[in-house]
Design goal:
Length: 414
């Protein structure tokens, strides 16, 4: 079954339309699991978390100094206070106090009940057990109120969210040991092509090493994924069909590279059509025009182009947002910057282009970009040296050196 979203078969689907199709089709996995905090880094929180306690749970000192009651000292006057004990972090001072007394206190220690002010140790003078306050001492300073970070029953983190190190420390501060996260996605990927050779084998004439599986292994590395390398499949419709059908039983998502175009050895789209459905196929993007997106049973399928740089671009622009949606993350967009471009960029109108660039900081601090090198979609060295995409809209006819362009740094999102 083909569910073509573009009316005429020669028309290419725009990048935006294709992304919209992915976003409106893919539904988030339902299942969740409980994990310990150290295992939760990068996972997708599936239930919002509420704090069982105030953080901090008591009034505590914000710095090392002396805790006293402001009412014991007349405003605008120097005063002398007697030190009657020490409040350590973790070891509160519990004895009673009489007027004009104070307690030596350290950062994080519970402020004794009588005190409402802490003066920093740098501001006082000490002589034996007597502390002299300066004329300009200030009341009610340097005390962190109970709940001044988070109140009991307040929402700590709203789901869904990909958990960061900052989130884990917040959860730990609330004493939370386990949380509920979306289950991991099972992803299988393979390469297609009679010319492909696995690493470790010698190359015969006309053969190339399969680099796409290594690109995909790196791109797919994520705590929300369990990935399986399914190897190389020949350009043979029967073998392809068998692989599709087997993989669809085991995985949430299958990703293939190669064989997605219209050559005589390109069987991916027709096999997908036979085993499942094709949601879209040809896109107005460069590199990466042939990209078959669809479904086999309950398994999502991305048939990426064969050229390695096209794999990089189509993974970032379509597969990644699709996987994030499946994993339960809210839609995000790549961080885009407008910067001056040192290079002249050639482009024919028609397809949105993702040229490989090198974003760098000039001596004055401004960012600028230059083309990383030639832009053919087999050129992995240029891709390896690049650190951003330079994005040129479909109708652009290129730019002259010195003009402003839009860049998307790799791995930076809003
Ligand atoms: P295809 O989409 O199958 O026509 O492949 C387009 C180009 O990408 C051809 O030059 C292929 O040899 C190359 N290619 C396909 N698959 C891979 C792969 N796994 N690793 C490296 N290059 C590939
Ligand atoms: Mg091929």
């Amino acid at each position: 079954m083909t569910n073509i979203c573009y009316p005429n078969k020669h028309e290419l689907l725009s990048v935006e339309q294709a992304l919209l199709e992915i976003r409106k089709t893919i539904e988030t996995v339902n299942e969740s699991e409980h994990v310990d905090l150290p295992q939760a880094l990068g996972r997708v929180l599936s239930e919002s978390v509420v704090s069982p306690i105030d953080i901090p749970s008591q009034r505590t000192a914000a710095m090392d100094g002396y805790a006293f009651a402001a009412g014991d000292v007349a405003a605008g006057q120097a005063a002398k206070l007697q030190v009657i004990g020490i409040a350590w972090a973790g070891r509160p001072f519990l004895a009673q106090q009489t007027p004009s007394q104070c307690v030596r206190i350290f950062t994080g220690a519970v402020v004794p009940e009588f005190a409402d002010s802490v003066i920093a140790q740098e501001q006082i003078e000490i002589d034996g057990d007597t502390v002299s306050l300066p004329l300009d001492w200030q009341p009610y300073k340097n005390i962190r109120a109970a709940g001044s970070d988070v109140k009991q029953h307040e929402e700590l983190i709203a789901a869904p969210k990909k958990l960061t190190a900052r989130d884990l420390s917040l959860l730990a501060a609330a004493g939370i040991e386990k949380i509920s996260v979306k289950r991991k996605l099972n992803i299988g990927y393979f390469s297609t092509g009679d010319e492909l050779v696995a690493l470790g084998e010698p190359l015969a004439v006309g053969q190339i090493y399969d680099s796409n599986r290594y690109l995909l292994a790196g791109l797919l590395s994520d705590p929300n994924h369990t990935v399986s390398d399914l190897g190389i499949v020949a350009d043979d419709p029967l073998k392809l069909e068998q692989t599709f059908k087997d993989a669809a039983q085991h995985y949430d998502v299958i990703i293939s590279t190669g064989g997605a175009s219209v050559g005589d050895a390109d069987f991916v789209k027709q096999t997908l059509e036979k085993c499942g459905q094709v949601n879209f196929w040809k896109l107005a993007i460069k590199p990466g025009k042939p990209l078959a997106f669809g479904k086999i049973g309950s398994c999502w399928f991305f048939g990426l182009p064969g050229n390695p740089v096209a794999v990089l671009v189509t993974y970032e622009k379509f597969v990644k947002p699709g996987l994030e949606q499946l994993a339960g993350l809210p839609a995000r967009q790549a961080l885009r910057l407008r910067v001056r471009c040192d290079s002249r960029l050639k482009k024919s109108p028609g397809r949105q282009e993702y040229q490989r660039g090198i974003l760098y900081q000039q001596a004055g601090g401004e960012l600028a970009v230059r083309l990383a090198g030639q832009q053919d979609s087999h050129q992995l060295k240029v891709a390896s040296q690049s650190n951003c995409f330079i994005v040129l809209n479909a109708d652009s006819t290129g730019i002259d050196a010195g003009e402003m362009v839009t860049v998307e740094p790799f791995s930076a999102e809003l």
